[in-house]
Design brief:
Two copies of one chain form a homodimer.
Chain A: E1 8-13, H1 42-50, E2 59-64, H2 65-75, E3 86-90, H3 96-110, E4 115-120, E5 124-125, H4 128-143, E6 147-152, E7 163-169, E8 176-182, H5 187-196, E9 199-209, H6 210-220, H7 222-234, H8 240-250, H9 256-261, E10 267-272, E11 276-277, H10 285-288, E12 297-299, E13 302-305, E14 311-314, E15 318-322, E16 327-331, E17 335-340, H11 347-356, E18 367-370, E19 373-381, E20 384-391, E21 399-401, E22 405-413, E23 416-420, E24 423-427, E25 432-435, E26 441-445, E27 451-459, E28 468-471
Parallel strand pairs in A: 1-2, 1-4, 2-3, 6-10, 12-14, 13-15, 14-16
Antiparallel strand pairs in A: 4-9, 5-11, 6-9, 7-8, 7-9, 8-10, 16-17, 18-19, 19-20, 20-27, 21-28, 22-25, 22-27, 23-24, 23-26
Chain lengths: 476, 476
């Protein structure tokens, strides 16, 4: 195998907000962190896919501050070295131009000759070999100073995507000059594009030298560029986070396509027949998952009679369906979606409505991942709350105390090491212990199997924010 | 007010199996015990409705042995005297002819001059005054030895009901001779019936003298009659239950309509304009509940966008619906139904399939009523189970022990009096106690407010049948 080119870096954009795959996605568990397709989550699949071309230490992930901690935790399991997968955190999301610019100044600092491969964290790629092959061609073109975008050959007159019109073709590489970018077309125009053979879907996958993209940002987005210069100076200083926040607070939301690519004359398109799908809504599953004989995609605890062309996902509870046609049903422990397929884009409106009503179902799942494992809320009542805590072997919660609640712990599997004030003792399955209010305590799995604890909280206020951390392995 | 006629008895048939309103109905919580319409359950509404005509002590309810205990419990709250609402238990359901015959021999024993008003426990009656008025007329006719059935004036060409063709009309009472009963018609025939004005829906509400119906059973169903004679002899002896079981094991399923009414020449129909609906499936709700501007019936925690003509019920979890048309969605804590309206009859098939798979979701809800209150299963895991127990003031569980599980109890509201072997002690909110395996124990609410306990069970076997009852207030 060829050694990996040290100059090549992957930048994965992972700031998605988790609205379009609600209720499976949540603000704190967006699409890129879901296992909708196959074995692993989309962002982990994205990383694995690019590892043949880029070393793990050359992979950066751009996300927002809110998600950064959870995302880092999410990638723990596939890290081989401590410095694999750098997380670059934006203070707020401002679309792709600032995200790419920010990543570029980070890369430039370490290696001004870097070539950036910009990827989305939540796209599906059916043909991974073809994907790597086309990226290699794109890299060659990028080395000459071009901005290269991967163009996907249309297979239907899709009106939901932007298109790229391709011009002159390099005979050897097949890469073509871009004549123009076009907005989402109407169905007649899309049909014409499809038939012409010179139009490609804009995949959002880009390859360019850091110096080239920064040069074009300077030319076409001078305000962004001057902000990036400020950030560049602050990198690795104690002001870094503060300056990023200051700069971002003044930036406008802008896509790299609109801000740079539509204006630059250095843009090339690499035709890519890679089984690409951006999985933009529940109905996109029809493009990427297999169907049963009735055209359904059915997963989980489902009993169906005579449904057709429907997507039915259940997590654990029983979902019974009869005679559906072109429907999407998604069941989770705290929320169920029932939607006509052609209205799948409106899921976003449901999420907006939940925010407006101040509900939590748009934000988090009943089960919340933590660095030490996970907890699941089983029931909230008047002055009590019941949780199941699952603590991985070696996992340790922070030393903490609560001002408004006491906690009863019953161990149902594994062995818990409990610190209560100055005492340290072990609690085994079918044993329990009690932590009074305002008492310092800590919980640790010192064993080899999962520690599971049923926690019954009593108190006048039971919010997650009633926690004073005295010491924490995870620096929270 | 007129004193109630002591000879008049109501017999309420309540053997329904809870399939057609699944998942809200379950085998152990059938339709008659649900509050689908308004304030109270259907059987309690049935009882209240008839109380203007019949004294509580003259009301009998025929059900099967499996349901008898729960039904009795269910009616506790509306009893004024200990002997209100006699429960007559069949060993197994054998359709209406045996149920009515059995009730008749019970009534005959106490009062051979009894007049039976036979009611269903799960019908909706919109106009209660008209209902009582027509029953009074029917009673007058029954006193002359007639078998009177209430006939509902059709308002649409319904193909799901049986029809009665009416003949000669009594000028004073409006009651008419029955010419014939007909099976469920096709749509063309139903249209003709509707237009003729001489056809009525067979409501399943009957009035007759005990002696009259037994006489006709003797004539047209001699096998049933000889079985009833055996039961009659055994009534109030120690053999009563055994003989009922023996007789029922040899009876065929038969409706009173087919077995007697279609053959007898004593049958009269009392035209009844009483807002009757048999509420035979989810779609029947469209006849009895109010709709919003889009033709929907929506109850519970629902966020909807642009649905039309749909029935959407949620208990507690969030249900989000988009763009539905003519759908039925029913969400419960452990199961969700999503069904096209015109397939609502197929809900029965789902229940059959669940039985076949050995699932529990057709049988019971997560919350199970008990004489002392209720329990809710919050989670079942490997070797552990979590329940919330809610014990009414004055409620006391049996003295019991378990061979395969120990129990941790955390009190979250109220005060628990706990008996553990020979110890008796009180446990208050935010306190806990532990019951080891094979230890006699009892739980009692000695306070004035609801006692709520979180129970964490540990053990190798956690079935409800691991219980040895040493003493029980409720004779279980």
């Amino acid at each position: 195998m060829q050694p990996l080119n040290k100059n090549i870096h992957a930048v994965i954009l992972a700031g998605g907000t988790g609205t379009r795959f609600w209720p499976l996605s949540r603000e704190r568990s967006p699409k890129q962190m879901l296992k909708i397709f196959g074995e692993d989550t989309m962002i982990r699949q994205t990383i694995k896919r690019i590892c043949g071309l880029v070393s793990e230490q050359n992979i950066s992930i751009v996300t927002n501050e809110r998600l950064a901690f959870d995302l880092n935790l999410h990638l723990e399991g596939i890290k081989r070295r401590k410095d694999d997968f750098k997380i670059i955190a934006e203070s707020i999301g401002r679309n792709t131009a600032p995200a790419i610019g920010l990543a570029a100044v980070y890369l430039k600092k370490n290696n001004p000759d870097s070539i950036m491969v910009v990827l989305s964290s939540d796209h599906s790629i059916g043909n991974e070999k073809a994907f790597i092959d086309v990226l290699k061609k794109a890299i060659k073109s990028a080395e000459k100073g071009n901005l290269v975008t991967l163009g996907v050959k249309p297979v239907r007159p899709e009106t939901g995507y932007g298109y790229i019109k391709a011009g002159v073709r390099n005979q050897k590489s097949g890469i073509r000059k871009v004549e123009k970018f076009t907005e989402k077309p109407d169905i007649k125009t899309a049909q014409r594009y499809l038939e012409s053979g010179n139009y490609f879907w804009n995949s959002g996958i880009f390859v360019w030298k850091v110096s080239a993209i920064l040069g074009e940002i300077k030319k076409y987005m001078p305000l962004l560029y001057s902000g990036l210069l400020k950030i560049e100076k602050a990198l690795a200083t104690k002001n870094e986070r503060k300056i990023i926040e200051e700069v971002y607070s003044e930036l406008e939301s802008q896509s790299i396509d609109y801000g740079v690519l539509e204006k630059s004359n250095k843009v090339m398109v690499a035709p890519a027949d890679i089984g690409w799908c951006d999985v933009g809504s529940w109905t996109a599953l029809d493009d990427v998952l297999p169907h049963d004989d009735n055209g359904n995609i059915i997963k989980g605890n489902v009993v169906d009679i005579a449904s057709k062309d429907s997507i039915i996902f259940s997590s654990d509870r029983l979902v019974a369906t009869i005679g559906l046609k072109n429907m999407v049903i998604v069941d989770t422990p705290d929320a169920t979606l029932v939607c006509e397929k052609h209205r799948a884009q409106d899921v976003k409106k449901i999420v907006d409505e939940l925010k407006r009503r101040g509900k939590e179902e748009h934000l988090i799942h009943k089960t919340v991942e933590r660095p030490w494992g996970a907890y699941t809320v089983l029931e909230c009542g008047d002055r009590y709350k019941i949780k199941r805590l699952a603590i991985k072997p070696g996992g340790r919660l922070s030393m903490q105390l609560h001002r408004h609640r006491s906690e009863h712990w019953v161990v149902v599997s594994g062995t818990a090491r409990v610190t209560k004030d100055t005492e340290v003792y072990d609690v085994h399955p079918n044993e329990s212990t009690y932590i009074p209010m305002s008492t310092k305590h800590r919980l640790e799995n010192i064993g080899k199997v999962l520690l599971q604890i049923i926690e019954v909280q009593n108190g006048e206020y039971l919010g997650e924010d009633d926690i004073e951390r005295i010491d924490d392995d995870y620096n929270r």
